[in-house]
Amino acid sequence: MVQRLLEPGEIEALDHTSIPRLLLPDARSLFTTRAARLRQLAGNQIKGIPVGETLSGYLNLMAALVDAQAAVLRTLPPDTFALPDAADIQLAIDHHMPPLPVSGQRPAVWRRVFDAILDQLDSLAASQPQLAVVLAELRALDASELEGCADAVLSELTEGVHPLHAPFVAAALQVMWTARASQLNGRSVQPLVTNTLCPVCGAHPVASAIRIGGQSQGYRYLHCSCCASEWHMVRVKCSCCENTSKVAYQSIEPEEGAPDPANKANDPSKVARAETCDDCHTYRKIFNQEHDLHVEPLADDLASLALDLLVGEAGYSRASGNPLLWFNAE
């Protein structure tokens, strides 16, 4: 029997109970898994995502930061990550708004998470003077400066935020929002008016992934840069402007040459690709679990800077940034 491929409009019309619309994060394992993936990438062990020596050092540093995220999540009391009132959550859901919005007022307790992450990194800073300087600068920020940095991070603004400070602030916010998102009832969360923002917190996706296993087999999900929730979006559709007519894919050919055409799985050239759109001239990366079981969108996006350079030279702009890598205005 020959299966017919469904067009994007037909896929969207399917019964959404058969396609998991939303995959909430498992906060207990997310950061541990991400740190392990970052170290694999730093060791240039992932075919399809080549990593040079300079980037390797940064990935190892970010792996240590993600380890600190995991440790803080384990050690801080559960009430640190308490959800808002049930009535407030339901009101947001009823109006198709994110129940844990990154905009507006945030719980002040996130600063406790921030302080705990810095404490976790002190042992590493003892042997890395540059990290010690950054941690000292972060601790010297007063409450107003720290909240201003958090505002810039959540709004993805490069103005007024130190590029070396931002990843550490972003890390604390990620722990806060991921822990809270993991406690939601995913079935009750409703899609937003636009499918290009996270239905849980309203943040931009960092990348997308084609998932395998169960009802998610073969479907594409956008991965939230803040709370790590994933939501379904059909393939061959721009995750920035949602147009479908001018979407294309760019990838880096592996050094060993073209893959064996007889082996359609484990194709390194399809692990990491840039989905470009000639309508809005942006791109966002898409990682394929069918070709690498251990795809981790945020880590893989951070490590695949060579792909950013490739599509940037072709005239495309990133649709959104990676919270663990910031550049200044220049």
CATH architecture heading of the domain at 26-181: Alpha-Beta Complex
CATH level-3 fold name of the domain at 26-181? FdhE-like fold
Query: What proportion strand?
Result: 5-15%
How many strands, which pairing sense, and closed or not: the largest β-sheet? 8 strands, mixed
CATH superfamily of the domain at 26-181: FdhE-like domain
Order of helices and strands: HEHHHHHHHEEEEEEHHE
InterPro entries: FdhE-like_sf (IPR024064), FdhE_C (IPR056796), FdhE_central (IPR056797), FdhE_N (IPR056774), Formate_DH_accessory (IPR006452)
Subcellular location: Cytoplasm
Family: Belongs to the FdhE family.
Function: Necessary for formate dehydrogenase activity.
Structure description:
- The chain is α+β, with helices and mostly antiparallel strands.
- The radius of gyration is 20 Å and the shape is globular.
- It is 38% helix and 11% strand.
- Strand 3 and strand 4 form a beta hairpin.
- Strands 1, 2, 3, 4, 5, 6, 7 and 8 form an 8-stranded mixed sheet that branches.
- The N terminus is likely disordered.
- 41% of the residues are buried.
- The protein contains 10 helices and 8 strands.
- It has a domain of 156 residues: FdhE-like domain (FdhE-like fold), CATH 3.90.1670.
- The longest helix has 23 residues.
- This is Protein FdhE homolog.
- Necessary for formate dehydrogenase activity.
Topology:
Layout: H1 8-12, E1 22-23, H2 27-42, H3 53-75, H4 86-94, H5 110-125, H6 129-140, H7 143-155, H8 166-181, E2 205-210, E3 220-224, E4 230-232, E5 247-251, E6 272-277, E7 282-288, H9 297-303, H10 305-313, E8 317-318
